Amino acid sequence: MKTSYTSLDRFTSGEYEFDRPDRFRRLVETVQRDGIVARGAGVSYVAASFSPKAVSIETAAFDRILAFDPDRSWIEVEAGVSLGKLFEFLTPRGFHIPIQPGHPQVTIGGCVAANVHGKNQYSDGIFGSLVQELTLYHPDHGVVRASPTENAEIFDLTVGGYGLTGIILSVRIGIAKLAGAAVRQRNFRVDGLLAAFREVDRLKQDHDLIYCWNDLSRLGRNRGAGVVVTGSYVAGDSGGKAETNYKRLDPSAKKRLRPNVFTDKAMPWVNRIYAHQNRPASKPVDVPLFQFNFPAVGKEFFFDFFGDTGFVELQLLLPSDAVEAYVEDFLSLQESHGRPIALTTIKAVRGDQRLLHFNGNGFNFTIELRNSPQNIAFLNNLDDLNCRYGGITNIIKDSRLRPEIAERQYPEIDLFRQRLRTYDPRRRFSSALSERLLL
Ligand SMILES: Cc1cc2nc3c(=O)[nH]c(=O)nc-3n(C[C@H](O)[C@H](O)[C@H](O)COP(=O)(O)OP(=O)(O)OC[C@H]3O[C@@H](n4cnc5c(N)ncnc54)[C@H](O)[C@@H]3O)c2cc1C
Asked: Using CA atoms, how far apart are residues 118 and 26, in angstroms rounded to an integer?
């Protein structure tokens, strides 16, 4: 059976084979072949869960909560469960998953496979650090239980392995106690890109959550001015169940209006409006946790407003000591490019880079641009600059990332390839992402 899938950035689209098993036995029957890939919510920016050479195994039916141990602070779930469903279960019980990417539709399988980060990577690390144990199905290995101490090699390749080791069936995740279901938010204005990096650096120690939004949509003075947003967990009202009743992202939907609103001319105005709406208030404001965790909810139009050709995101992990010189070179490259960047954000990060993990010490610098030949050429030039400064590009975000750039940026990419082939000589699992990067 075929269906249409499109990556969130709309870079990759087509008709692909899929199956939607509703029980384990059916899943096992379907995956006895070469060319398979698991699919969670399918909201990745890139084509990570489909390929012309693979059958996508949709995991939506596998979304049960299997066990919950508040005394030892863990929860065990099937991998198809969404962050939104877990929010609904955990928040009233005074717990949360302390590392969460920015959308509630994202599944736990997607979080493990892409080893995702939240707005607190500096203080809490990446998702893999929460994973205590998982079960995985591979047609040649059967069901395997894996953890840092049991089948450690499989565990190591699966967490951040982009779905290439098998279908994750269940995951035991460490959870954290919550002070309450609100976040005390405080915004700080910054008057340029370098000032923004410095301010994030200054504030990162003292807040549970931190990110910065910047305006790179206009050339000229104060380029990169923006707002640093900090958050600390506080007691407060979750806003109740209704919060999780949000509008779904559906990049694969065919009949959806996608007006081309975010033109080069419009972007500076869009950024101005956003800056105005997010200007620092005189006092901190308490916002519901759901809203702070998932700021894209209610703004689904953002992705549609790039029109049918979509957008491209480059998310870069930039070493701390490179920032000053990088910002100067980056701004001059953008100046010669002469076109607006639609969205820019900065986060603080800390950790060890290994295998294909988007991790390290420094900053997460993200830019999103309309998908056009000129912008792609700019990003391809930027890749060289990024390599020179020791940056690494997030694989799960950038549909355009070429294997030669990934090889310059991820020192252990070959090691990952070799270990994957030792585990699975037939390389049964693949996606458009893995094929592009020759994984
Ligand atoms: C609005 C928005 C904000 C985001 N913010 C962040 C952020 O702050 N930080 C961040 O790191 N990411 C962020 N992301 C990216 C997102 O977290 C990842 O792309 C995530 O992998 C998507 O999960 P999914 O359930 O949609 O998985 P899919 O897109 O369906 O698949 C992603 C990968 O996971 C694999 N996979 C999924 N389920 C399984 C399974 N059961 N077994 C094996 N492999 C599996 C797939 O094969 C694929 O390789 C954001 C995405 C959106 C839409």
From this structure: 34
